[in-house]
Amino acid sequence: MQYRQFGQTDMSISAVGFGCWAVSGTQGPTDTGQFERAVQHALDAGINCFDTAEACGMGIPGRVLGRALASRREDVCLVAKMGLGYPEASNRHDSPRTRIIASLERSLHNLGTDHVDVYLVHWPDPTMPLEETFHVLDDVVRQGKARYVGVSNFRLSQLEAGMQLRRIDVVQYGWNFFDRRMQREIFPWCAAHGVGVMAHGSLAYGLLSGSFTAEAPSDERRSKRDRLGGLNLFQAMFGEDDFRRNLRAVEEFKTLAAKYGKTLPQFALGWTLSNPAIHTALVGIHRASEVDENLGALGWSISFQDRAAIEAIIARNEVVTEPPGWLEDDPVA
After folding, report:
1. Strand residue runs (E) in 122-203
2. 94 in a domain, yes or no?
3. Domain containing residue 88: CATH number
4. Domain that holds residue 135
5. Is residue 289 within a helix (H) or strand (E), and if so which, with residue range?
6. What's the pLDDT tens digit per position in 144-176?
7. What average pLDDT does range 76-88 have in this prediction?
8. Cα–Cα distance measured from residue 107 to residue 276, given in angstroms and rounded to the nearest whole number
9. pTM greater than 0.85
10. Are 206 and 238 in contact (CB under 8 A)?
């Protein structure tokens, strides 16, 4: 396993992070026993970062993860997120003081611990002043219920404003072949401020895992797109025209991966981890075999020539890696 200093925290974090959304039940039936064996295998392999989110399963992954970690809880970095997935809230985002505190208490109960190592606001809440959000984040650190705090999917202006209120220790953003918007402003800002960076969507929500083909029914693609929400990036990945272009690029990426004796997911994850801004790349894991598959992204590197070949594939297939606008449209007043 490879470890990286996690920003300015006192933690050394595994390059591969364990995303727990696969056991949330939102993508079909799950085998919790199989998931617990995967957690044990990941621990034995040296993975020490485990990521949960209230929006994924509303507590199910946390409960199963807590049982799986048991006495090894202190060996890991536990990450919990809140602020997204509430049907009664505007645009499903909600992060007032009461929600932040209640969500954290639920996470602690589900995980069977008295603190998390990192507590993140999953998505900015446009109805809530940043001052309230960041002041309560500071409070939970002072209370010892979270060691470090941060945000996910915030714009640069929000990061800058938030950092004036209390330190942002960790952030989480998408990063993969098809999603590169953060390279312009977000990642340089994080590097300049010593902020820990977690990458999600490392396999482009299935595009880089080989789970989609050109023959995939249009309703299957539409279901994937709709389940991920009306976010600008997902429309660019799974919209009718974009999807065909992206799949052509995927087929060419497979040829490059084969040069290294790697699967496409290993090749894609290796590319994600080659970005010096990234401290850990999250991958959804459900089976022990998937742990071994993801570890194949470590211990090798993509040549300069093949990195150029990746860019040529992107250009040749007219792949849109930086769609206009932010991750989602501004709310309508």
Report:
1. 146-152, 170-174, 196-200
2. yes
3. 3.20.20.100
4. 3-205+265-299
5. helix 288-295
6. 999 999 999 999 999 999 999 999 999 999 999
7. 77
8. 31
9. yes
10. no
